[in-house]
């Protein structure tokens, strides 16, 4: 392929290294609690700010987030807020104590502009009634523990109570050099994720928001022991909310924002378990939702270029996730991404768009694009960092072949999850 064009695929704000091609690699820092992929040192809006890495204050308005204080209690004082687990574009998630059952739980509070009868509650209840041994989606026999509505200054909010699930893959990656997981860990978590997606699709469920921030990891012995977890967590980090000149604080805002906690997780053994979370974007096979809010760099082409999509958007997102687990960065630019730039990267990686999609997108020519097939780009990302490789070149070749089959432009040509498990890369013999 032509090498007259060069695209600099830059990742978020971390140490860069220089690969053999003209593309620039950076190890990836994408907050587990921040689905946009952008790094926040200060949370702010046009009128308010707080000196802490947290959600945007713009969402604290009617229809948005519910303002939370540590120590708040809900549902007749049953659930007490102890710490923050994270946030998404349409919810905040908190570590809470269930005072009735004397246990820790995760309390997800949806923004007030979300449908009260969310599909998420339906699917969690459905999964909770399954035989636990039959589903790789979660380790506990009941996932949705409780569901209620709270009323606050920004509206009515649906609240979901689930078991505490561990640390996210995003946070886990940040613990390793170049944000790349050890080889055995990347392989094992990838295999479990493929199994989970295959199971979801087999029962007619599409996740619709699959990316590393929506994957939790625990150990076989649940390193998060209920009795000790609060003592093991780092000190609470919070920043008071301030108003810029000419503005006043309102009841729609919290008095402070809280930095999400990173759970301790023992990775010395080889008994990690992955669990997919956040079913707020799910839809059923055979239906097409009005919109999908998956982080841009994990979106399948049809989400940008077509008006119809199905369960195979999960396959594209799954491939992007596995790519990140193996290399430490996303396959496409995650630094201030935009749709046109992403489409140009697709073209550089996979060739021209299928003819039915070409009229839908007028992509300006960029003289700095180097065309590079996916498998070659995978090699650059894996071997182009200052870290001893754990996978042999043959293993990376097998991984590239598998990802290529999962990332076909046309959805009908993508390998289904149940067949991905038969890929050469997932054979245990070479790993052992």
From TrEMBL:
Residues 79-426 form the Protein kinase domain. SUPFAM superfamilies: Protein kinase-like (PK-like). It comes from the Eukaryota. ATP binds at residue 108. The keyword ATP-binding applies. Keywords: ATP-binding, Kinase, Nucleotide-binding, Serine/threonine-protein kinase, Transferase. GO terms for biological process: regulation of mRNA processing; spliceosomal complex assembly. The keyword Kinase applies. InterPro entries: Kinase-like_dom_sf (IPR011009), Prot_kinase_dom (IPR000719), Protein_kinase_ATP_BS (IPR017441), SRPK (IPR051334). Its EC number is 2.7.11.1. GO terms for molecular function: ATP binding; protein serine/threonine kinase activity. This is non-specific serine/threonine protein kinase. It comes from Sphaceloma murrayae.
